[in-house]
Model the fold of this input.
Amino acid sequence: NADGSWGYQGQGQHWADSMTCAGLLGLAVGQGILQEGSPRPDVVQAPDIARGLAYLGRVIDKEGSPGKAALSRKMGRHLVHANARGDLYFLWSLERVGVIYDLSRIEGKDWYAWGAPMIVDHQNADGSWSDTFPGIVDTSFALLFLRRVNVATDLTSKLKLLSKPHQEEAGSGIPSTPEDRQEVSTTPGGNAPKGKTWELKARGGKDK
Done:
C-alpha cells in the first residue's frame, strides 16, 4: 500500500498491522535466498522493507492501536485494538520482525520494552492469556513475544551479514548478553526496564 503497509488480500487495510509484519517476513526470506553474486544491498534500507518498518513505527504507541492510550480501555478480552485478528497475534508478529531482522528498535522505538509490560499486565490469574484465541494459542503468542524466541536463526544470521555495515553504524541488534538481561516477575502491573529482557518466573517463585 501507499503507506508502506500490506493488507490481508490485495491492496487494502484489512488486518494491515499484522499483515505488514507478514509482508516484511516474506521480504526477509527473499533477501535470505539471494544467490551468490547477486546484489546485496543493506537489507533494512531496501525501499519496500524501509517503508514497511516505517509503517510499524507509526503503529507503535498510536492512539486507537497498540499503545498506552488504548491499553487503559481494556475493552472485552482484548489488550489493545490492533488492526489485526488479535492483539497478541499482532504483538507476536511484531516480535517475529524484530528478531528476524535483529532490530532492538523500529523507527527509533523499543518495540520490546513497549509490548512486554502490556502483555504481562494482562496475564490471567492461572498464568494464561486470553485475547482472540483463548487458551494455549494466545498464551503461546504471549510467551513467544516475552522470550523473543527466534525459530529462524539461520535466516537472521544471513540477514545480519547483509546488514552488517548498517548495524555497525546504527548500533542495532537485540541485546543477548547477561549484562543486557534482567529478571522480573510476571506479576501484573510490573514495568520492564527499557531495553531489558523479561525473564519469566512461575507464580510460586521458581525460575522458569
The radius of gyration is 17 Å. The chain has one domain: 16-176. Residues 153-170 form the longest helix (18 residues). The helical segments are 16-32, 47-59, 68-71, 87-100, 111-121, 136-147, 153-170.
